Amino acid sequence: MHNAAPAKTMTRPKNHLYMFLDALRGVAAVLVAQRHISETFGGQPFQSSYLAVDFFFALSGFVIAHAYNGRLATGMSERSFLWRRLVRLYPIFIMGLVLRTGYDLGRLQAVDGATLLSWGVTFLFNALFLPISLLDQPFILGPAWSLFCEVLANILYGRLASTGITWRKTLPPLLIGALLMLLFLWKFGNLDIGWFFASLAGGPARVLYSFFAGVLIYSQRSRIPSGGMGIGLLCCAALVAVLCLDVSPGARVYYDAIVALAILPLIVAAGAGVMLPRIFSNTCRFLGASSYPMYVLHLPMAAIFFWLFSSFFGTASQSEISVAVWLFITVLAVLGWALDVYVDEPLRRKILGRQIVATALFETSGNNPPPRI
Asked: What is the pLDDT of residues 330-348, one digit of tens each?
């Protein structure tokens, strides 16, 4: 009697690069862009896609831990770490801030000295990632609130990781963040918070939990089972489903709590174990590279696009607007990839003075090892 052949198992190499997480980040960025553009210009938005920001935060914690845990514990200073993070975030961010400010000022009926002063002061503070504003919202550029939160999380992470971060160190910020998130969720009825003045403190609560959930998941990466195409498709389908599903107002509090606190971190964990055939590496790289520019620039670029669209075509039907939204997102994804590859990365490389590799929020972990500078 012959012994059965042992089942084949997938083993991740030590230098596993998590390229599937790039693909998931790109998918989430598309859903966020679709939501905001549709809300602004009359399409049909995906009702739960604001939770993609919690997914971004968890991805950021995971990938930053992958790139910097060891380096911060073995000599990299907190100052150097934060400088690299600001260099990563800033070029595309300032481009979006200038575009949005220019567009909004150009659309004003009248511009006097007081108006220019208000916009100028707000622009200067916003350019420092600070939610200090003389206008009706904390940030001129909508997505900037999440970058402000990201910087706060990076500061705390840098402090904790500088003496060696362990899973035990992640628990206090993670648990405090979960508690604060639930309190804000109960107060506002959903987690679409952090971007307007009344809910400004909700943003740091969201990032505190999700970012350190990502760091915790990375600390347990050896326990994550490897998976192939089937697990990857399941992760992608689950992400799209939870970000697109519409739920009743009465169920919204419970839905957002379950998705943000449990389902999205689980998708990050499962996605980290996915190993795709090399044939998909370019697709993952494209989605990862385009995601951050797409997220930051989609609102000002959409405002310009739909202004031109209405100027040439006049009033459009609902179906025409829906087609225009997806056409714009497709063009924006290609533009975002080109900006990352031909503008943002070369500029960051020049600023830092040596070869750099993107490593965090909405960045391309790509097919390169973590940075060694």
From this structure: 999 999 999 999 999 999 9
Give 127's strand partners: none
Question: Which run of H or E residues covers position 145?
Answer: helix 144-161
Q: Quick one: 330 exposed, middle or buried, by C-beta within 10 A (0-12, 13-18, 19+)?
A: exposed
Q: Which three-class secondary structure state does DSSP give residue 283?
A: helix
Task: Report d(CA 126, CA 122) in Å as an integer.
Answer: 6
- C-alpha to C-alpha distance for 355 and 360, rounded to whole angstroms: 16
Distance between CA atoms of 152 and 146, rounded to whole angstroms? 10
Record the tokens describing residue 22, joined without a space: 């790039």
Whole-angstrom distance, CA of residue 151 vs CA of residue 158: 10
* CA 335 – CA 291 distance, rounded (Å): 10
d(CA 201, CA 180) in angstroms, rounded, equals 9
CA distance 164 to 158: 10
Are 368 and 17 spatial neighbours (Cβ–Cβ below 8 Å)? yes
* Residue of 6, 4, 29 lying closest to 290 (CA atoms): 29
Concatenated DSSP letters of 195-251: SSGGGTTHHHHHHHHHHHHHHHHHHTGGGSPPB-HHHHHHHHHHHHHHHH----HHH
**One-letter amino acid for residue 97 of the chain:** L
- The C-alpha angle with vertex 295 and arms to 195 and 310, in degrees rounded to 5, equals 95
Scan for tokens 């998931």, then name that residue: 24
pLDDT at 361: 42
Half-sphere exposure of 4 (CA within 13 A, CB side): 3
pLDDT of res. 324: 85
> In the prediction, which pLDDT does 370 show?
38
In sign, the C-alpha dihedral spanning 203, 256, 329, 344 is: positive
Q: How far is CA 280 from the centre of its chain?
A: 22
Q: pTM of the predicted model, to two decimals? A: 0.90
The low-confidence residues of the chain, meaning pLDDT below 70, are: 1-17, 109-110, 354-373
Residue type, 25: R
Q: State the Cα–Cα distance between residues 342 and 271, nearest whole angstrom.
A: 28
Q: Do 293 and 344 touch, CB atoms closer than 8 A?
A: yes
Q: What is the largest CA-CA distance in the chain?
A: 92
pLDDT at residue number 268 = 98
What is the CB neighbour count within 10 angstroms for residue 44?
13
